[in-house]
Amino acid sequence: MKSPGLQYFDIILFALIAVFLVLRLRSTLGRRNGEEKQGPTDVFGRRSHEDDSKGATNGTRQPTDNVYRLPDVDKAAEKEEGTVAADSSTFGVLQQIQKADPDFTQQDFLNGARMAFEMIVEYFAKGDKDGLNPLLSAEVYKNFAAAIDARAEKGEREETTLVGIKSATIHDATLEGRTAYITIKFVSEEVSVIRNNDGDVVSGDPNQVIEAEDLWTFARNIESRDPNWQLVATETPEEETAE
């Protein structure tokens, strides 16, 4: 039987070991200091003034309740590529949008549009209608869903790899009542093929990278509490009318 002195020594020893393990875990996993941003923001980077005062943390592309968090941007290296010059007629419209929605900036919108483009291309290729639904207007979703269903009926599947977005520029902007419309011109590099159930290529070339140009129009009620923009029209620069 241990003496009381030895028992107390064991207790102190175990306590020291426990403190050591806690410190090791904190150094390895880090600790919250109350500065972290607790909730995700939408795909177009809209942030509340409270969030601005606290600062943002790095985000991910993972969807959560149809709202998406933008990655943090290195402000020192950020370039204003794709934004509209102050002498453009479109700039006046964008100023009106920003006046109605102080959280709106061209650069944040472009960052979000790039992310939306990547997600929509990915979801469409996978045939993920649930993923597409919150990102598209009812009419565009109907067209995308019909194309996915037609592909499935033929026993075909699409494989699209987005190599990268070469550029995304604001092409046009209009304000109709409370609804803002912003059209982005995307120039991207993709590898896209369609295969049948046997895995044979029906169209496309899995070894060829193609350059694609698209005009996508996003819309949002700027007086709504819902911060999300939706894709309302798609076309190619050669086309005169949107789908």
From TrEMBL:
* GO biological process assignments: protein import into mitochondrial matrix
Residues annotated as region Disordered? 32-69
Q: Name one GO molecular function term.
A: protein-folding chaperone binding
Give residue spans, biased composition: Polar residues: 55-65
Lineage, top-rank taxon, reads Bacteria
State a single Pfam family of this protein. Answer: Tim44
- Compositionally biased, Basic and acidic residues: which spans? 32-54
Q: Where in the cell is it found?
A: Membrane
Q: Give the protein's recorded name.
A: Tim44-like domain-containing protein
A GO cellular component annotated for this chain's UniProt record is: membrane
TM segment ranges: 6-23
Segments forming domain Tim44-like: 91-236
Keyword entries, A-Z: Membrane, Transit peptide, Transmembrane, Transmembrane helix
The UniProt entry, under InterPro entries, shows: NTF2-like_dom_sf (IPR032710), Tim44-like (IPR039544), Tim44-like_dom (IPR007379), UCP031890_Tim44-rel (IPR016985)
Q: Which family does it belong to?
A: Belongs to the Tim44 family.
